[in-house]
Amino acid sequence: MQGVSFPRMVELDAVTGLPPRKMLDKDLPVLLRAMGPPGLPMCAIMIDIDHFKRFNDKYGHKIGDLVLRHVSSIIRKSVKFRGEAYRYGGEEITVLLLNTTGAEGLVTAQRICSAVGNSEIVAMVKGKEELLNVRISLGVASTDTVAGSEVLVCADQSVYKAKSFGRNQAVLFKKNAGRFYATTTIDVHFPGTTSIIGGTYILLKKWFSRGDISEIEARVIKDPNNDTADFAEAPVPFFGVVEAEIRGKVSAIERHKGHTYFKFEVKSEIIDLMFKYIQDANNANN
Question: In the annotation, is 91 catalytic?
Fold first, then answer.
């Protein structure tokens, strides 16, 4: 194919060993044009490492880079010659597969998910070997059902569905599929004390996510049952907090050292709305 051959023999990202985002941006339109005239589908798989922040926080960025490099190697070997894996950004990886339908891409994504989940990483932690297990969530979309201009966006939306379903799985984007589930559970961290109890409905009035919608931090929690609110003072990301209210049901509360952690059950369609709120907050501060 003119201008593109797999595997890509280009300057690779230093951490992952994958072609960088700028190469993805260059290759994508070329590949779409090549697949278009003969009517062949092209599939995109968006991949996110589950709980990646915890590796960095617990072991440090050196181990985090090791995890990222390990996962990237497995993914690239899994699609060799059929397509390519690119570092999209952070812990996100994008795979492009030529002449691949959504159903075929889902099979590949499930195979990648199993390969990563069944692997082990041997890391030196404080002078001792420690086995680390890593899991990934994957979203799949193909031009056999969506426009080429939408294929990455649709695959990305499916990643969030995979995470909301419990992570460590692949989800295929389907147009007009309706609701996936009646409710979705989100992990919430509130860096303060609160009187909320399980089984009650509350409002999150100020909150944010650093990328994974299924894990958010809240700064203001309101209990509409008794018209009270709890506030937390703690650092926020550069783009600030989202001030749109989210209503949901509280369960599985844990309180530890002045922090509150709980499960937050929301209507499934709220996930897409939250994603939009976060994008709007990012765009407003760029």
Answer: yes
